[in-house]
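Here comes just one.
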Amino acid sequence: MAKLILADLYDALRAPDVPDDKARAAATAVADFDRRIERIETKLTLMLSLLGVMVAVMLGGFYAVWAQLVAMSAKLGA
């Protein structure tokens, strides 16, 4: 698997005469961290979408129960 390297970070680490292998390892580590953050953001977006659906379903259920209670109270009151 080809590893992603952030060119700006790699250049910055190479500037003060850091060995090539250490600069490459640092740039790769930061790129891996960035990929993990993207996966977390994707999962969080999915979870928030599912939460929105769950809230909508619960509100629909509460409305259905409320409508039945109103109908029952109207029958009892009449």
Q: What stands out?
A: Residues 26 and 48 are 33 Å apart (CA to CA). The two ends are 75 Å apart (CA to CA). The mean pLDDT is 85. Residues 7-77 form one domain.
